């Protein structure tokens, strides 16, 4: 029997708003995810072991390589690097992790070309989910076409958290089930278009809540 | 003659008798349930009058023993952010000519935050403001912003009252249930 279903996955959450970070962190923890929350795309890249440009290794602690991230969830509207920019950087896997002039680091670097920092999975295969408070179809399509797995409208709900695990699990068994990709891409768009219906659904839910 | 009852006794069942013997503690229990009723009524009004929507319930669902003050913490963060944004918008509106893109950007952030805590009335006023912004209607923006500020202030007061009452009810609530 597969042990994968019981594993606790690690999500990297990216949002420049402290309030939204607190919210997404709580949503994720309540749904049994481990969370690292950062306030910018550049911080996110650091955690993932990617840098925007060539850097000396002195600023990057070895611990960063040991954090395995299973999914990235990011806000779209952020100053500097937007969520879309971050998505592209992850998918294209820009820049080499660290380059140092010392010999031992160079050896390690050469070794790292053959060994991924993320264990057996490649960084560009990490599922990325984008969040936004605005329902702009062109924006949503751009993100999905750019490689995002899902697009969540804010405020993100507990029920949205259920959509994360399948993407992580699918990524882990990618070779075995290639046909799933087609069905999931249509359901991602449905999430955004469904928003017209969901306020109705949400209004119905209100009557079930007791007010005490 | 003094009668001593341990907390293990089903106090609620002996209520009529106890009110005679425990006249010292009875008012306390009355007071506690009165506060609870007040809290429930306050909360119902917040929803009925449209100040809050179901997103607020979502926040409550996220509160538990590991994060017992989650809702209040998020609301506090909201008012910290929103006060800053309101001040920024105030300042930006003074400028001439109007930078509508910048105004819209601030209001987009404010609306997003309001929506995250379920601040329905505030969210609606923010939407109105953005519509005036898109049409580059300065007069409309100014009028609309007055409404945003008003809703902001009213909600702040109401939620402060709500959390204050919640704190009062909290510990007493546990005491009244100890006999059950």
TrEMBL record, chain A:
Residues 191-201 have a biased composition (Basic and acidic residues). Residues 10-169 form the Response regulatory domain. Gene3D superfamilies: 3.40.50.2300. Pfam families: Response_reg. InterPro entries: ARR-like (IPR045279), CheY-like_superfamily (IPR011006), Sig_transdc_resp-reg_receiver (IPR001789). The keyword Transcription applies. Residues 169-212 are annotated as: Disordered. The modification 4-aspartylphosphate is found at residue 75. Keywords: Cytokinin signaling pathway, Phosphoprotein, Transcription, Transcription regulation, Two-component regulatory system. GO terms for biological process: cytokinin-activated signaling pathway; phosphorelay signal transduction system. Belongs to the ARR family. Type-A subfamily. Functions as a response regulator involved in His-to-Asp phosphorelay signal transduction system. Phosphorylation of the Asp residue in the receiver domain activates the ability of the protein to promote the transcription of target genes. Type-A response regulators seem to act as negative regulators of the cytokinin signaling. This is Response regulator.
From TrEMBL, chain B:
PROSITE patterns: HPT (PS50894). Signal peptide: none annotated. Pfam families: Hpt. GO terms for molecular function: histidine phosphotransfer kinase activity; protein histidine kinase binding. GO terms for cellular component: cytosol; nucleus. The modification Phosphohistidine is found at residue 108. One of its GO terms (biological process) is phosphorelay signal transduction system. It is found in: Cytoplasm, Cytosol; Nucleus. CDD domains: HPT. Residues 67-169 form the HPt domain. Keywords: Cytokinin signaling pathway, Phosphoprotein, Two-component regulatory system. Histidine-containing phosphotransfer domain (HPt) contains an active histidine that mediates the phosphotransfer. Functions as a two-component phosphorelay mediators between cytokinin sensor histidine kinases and response regulators (B-type ARRs). Plays an important role in propagating cytokinin signal transduction. Functions as a two-component phosphorelay mediator between cytokinin sensor histidine kinases and response regulators (B-type ARRs). Plays an important role in propagating cytokinin signal transduction. This is Histidine-containing phosphotransfer protein. It comes from Musa troglodytarum (fe'i banana).
């Amino acid at each position: 029997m597969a042990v994968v279903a019981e594993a606790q996955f690690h999500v990297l959450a990216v949002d420049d708003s402290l309030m939204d970070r607190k919210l997404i962190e709580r949503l994720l923890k309540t749904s049994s995810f481990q969370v690292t929350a950062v306030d910018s795309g550049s911080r996110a890249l650091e955690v993932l072991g990617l840098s925007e440009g060539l850097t000396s290794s002195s600023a990057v602690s070895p611990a960063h390589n040991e954090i395995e991230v299973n999914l990235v969830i990011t806000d779209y509207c952020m100053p500097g690097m937007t969520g879309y920019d971050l998505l592209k950087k992850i998918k294209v896997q820009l820049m080499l992790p660290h380059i140092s002039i010392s010999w031992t680091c160079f050896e390690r670097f050469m070794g790292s070309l053959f060994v991924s920092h993320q264990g057996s999975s490649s960084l560009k295969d990490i599922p990325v989910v984008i969040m936004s408070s605005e329902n702009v179809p062109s924006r949503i399509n751009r993100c999905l076409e750019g490689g995002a797995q899902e697009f969540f409208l804010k405020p993100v709900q507990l029920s949205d958290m259920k959509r994360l695990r399948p993407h992580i699990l699918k990524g882990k068994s990618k070779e075995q089930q290639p046909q799933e990709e087609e069905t999931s891409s249509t359901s991602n768009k449905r999430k955004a278009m469904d928003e017209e219906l969901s306020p109705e659904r949400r209004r119905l839910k209100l009557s079930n809540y007791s007010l005490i | 003659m003094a009668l001593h009852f341990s907390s293990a006794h089903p106090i609620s069942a002996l209520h009529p008798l106890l009110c005679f013997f425990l006249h010292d503690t009875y008012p306390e229990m009355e007071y506690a349930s009165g506060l609870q009723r007040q809290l429930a009524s306050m909360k119902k009004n917040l929803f009925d009058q449209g100040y809050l929507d179901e997103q607020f319930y979502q926040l409550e669902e996220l509160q538990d023993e590991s994060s017992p003050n989650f809702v209040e913490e998020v609301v506090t963060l909201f008012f910290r952010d929103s006060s800053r944004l309101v001040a920024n918008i105030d300042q930006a509106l003074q400028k001439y000519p109007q930078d509508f893109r910048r105004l819209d950007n601030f209001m987009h952030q404010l609306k997003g935050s309001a929506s995250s805590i379920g601040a329905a009335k505030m969210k609606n006023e923010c939407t109105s403001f953005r519509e005036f912004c898109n049409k580059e209607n300065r007069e409309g923006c100014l009028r609309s912003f007055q409404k945003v500020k008003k809703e902001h202030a009213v909600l702040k007061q109401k939620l402060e009252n709500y959390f204050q009452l919640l704190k009062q009810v909290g510990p007493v609530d546990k005491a009244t249930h100890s006999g059950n």
